[in-house]
Design brief:
Rossmann fold; alpha/beta; seven-stranded parallel β-sheet; 11 helices; about 15% strand; about 425 residues
């Protein structure tokens, strides 16, 4: 009998083990099927990578956009309550738009009203902000919500100040680092990071300098920007990124161009001088002296924050000099003093490559062959010069220690824009 039972269990043991384990087997199989049929997805940044989620209790949360607050997988961000103002008016302009600006402005609005996005490809100083004003008015007249979004905080402050002059009857709020207590107004100006506050909110999203860091190449910020817009997007850039140009080729949006500045003078094409670091410093000082003698201010760009320390010590021996970069704690005060001409030379990094308008400013780039200076950033940097009606003849100087493909590409594109616009340089009045 014992032999019989031993033989029986030897033959049926695996079968009995299966029947004991089958509930666990089918539960695991059911979990695997659920995972395959319902993969995790963040409905804010559209992350689907299982390794980019973490669990708290029985809920999964996205790691990729955690900086913008925890959001459970499969849950839509909550739309905030914003007020809508019906405003029918016209912007206040310091100068009347040129025929070219009016044409591009009207064409851009026509595209938006057809329900399509539009890219305004315009040279630095051609008036991209002014071109957007007609569209802002058209949307506000219908009680729709409008947002002007830019990558960098300093540019947000500049654009908000300019829009307050254009729309003195409207309440305008800037939303960026240090300015987040109030987040709603008739017109919102914010950094692209702050768009996470506004899911499904804007009928018109004006996205300025979409190729700029940190927005460009950041899929989380791009997804958040798209989610904030329930209507149309107007993209503004002097250096469109490849993604936008490919979207135009695929007919996903349309493009309008404007390369001629309002004063009809050509864009500043930099002069290139090659030399050692010591020679570049000496030449920068000599050029600063010439510009300051002619009552002009200088933006002196350096590639690294570390370069501003020793360079300020040298430049400060001869001129009233200040430094600004991403880690500066008093950026607004520094820029205010520069606008008030209390500073002769402003040492800066690429922080000021975009969105800054200072009359009669001249530009010098130290070590312009450094990798941090891409062709797009150099186009923007030299676009700071020659923007003023009263002084349209800005000068740019690129100091290098060797060949720079990025600088060559910058010069090629600037020359192309000048040729396409038909701008012809008129010599400035001779000084006694």
């Amino acid at each position: 009998m014992a032999v019989f039972f031993c033989s029986f269990f030897h033959q049926t043991g695996p079968l009995l083990c299966f029947f004991r384990m089958w509930p666990i087997f089918f539960v695991q199989m059911d979990m695997d099927m659920n995972e395959n049929s319902h993969p995790l997805e963040c409905l804010r940044c559209h992350n689907r990578d299982p390794e980019q989620f973490f669990y708290s209790g029985n809920k999964a949360y996205c790691r990729k956009c955690l900086d913008f607050g925890p959001l459970e997988a499969g849950t839509l961000p909550k739309k905030p309550e914003l007020h809508h103002t019906v405003w029918k008016g016209s912007p206040v302009l310091e100068f009347e738009l040129t025929p070219s600006q009016k044409e591009v402005s009207a064409k851009a609005l026509e595209i938006l009203q057809s329900g399509r996005d539009v890219l305004v490809y315009a040279a630095a100083g051609a008036g991209k902000t002014e071109i957007s004003l007609e569209s802002i008015c058209a949307y506000l007249a219908q009680g729709k919500k409008v947002c002007f979004a830019i990558s960098r905080r300093q540019v947000v402050m500049e654009i908000a100040a300019r829009l307050r002059k254009n729309f003195p009857d409207l309440e305008i709020v800037e939303v960026c680092q240090g300015f987040t207590k109030k987040t709603d107004a008739d017109l919102i100006v914010c950094t692209t990071h702050q768009l996470y506050r506004y899911p499904f909110c804007f009928d018109l999203l004006i996205l300025d300098e979409l190729d700029a860091f940190p927005y460009c190449g950041n899929p989380v910020l791009e997804a958040i920007a798209r989610q904030s817009c329930i209507g149309q997007r107007m993209l503004l850039s002097a250096t469109p990124d490849k993604q936008s140009l490919q979207a135009i080729e695929r007919k996903e949006m349309e493009m309008v161009n404007l390369f001629l500045r309002p004063h009809k003078q050509p864009l500043c094409v930099p002069t290139v001088h090659t030399g050692s670091t010591l020679r570049q410093v000496v030449e920068a000082l000599l050029v600063c002296k010439r510009h300051i003698r002619n009552h002009k201010q200088v933006l002196l760009f350096v590639p690294r924050i570390a370069d501003t320390c020793w360079m300020k010590w040298i430049v400060g021996l001869f001129f009233r000099c200040e430094v600004i970069h991403s880690k500066s704690t008093d950026k607004d005060a520094i820029m205010q003093r520069f606008h008030e001409k209390k500073t002769e030379v402003l040492l800066c990094t690429t922080l000021l490559e975009r969105g800054i308008t200072v009359p009669s400013v001249q530009v010098i780039v130290f070590h312009a062959d450094h990798p941090v200076f891409t062709s797009a950033s150099l186009i923007q940097i030299f676009g700071r010069a020659g923007r003023s009606f009263k002084d349209p003849h800005g000068e740019g100087l690129a100091l290098v220690s060797g060949p720079s493909p990025a600088l060559n590409e910058c010069i090629r594109q600037l020359k192309f824009m000048n040729a396409a616009s038909g701008a012809r340089r008129s010599e400035p009045d001779a000084k006694p």
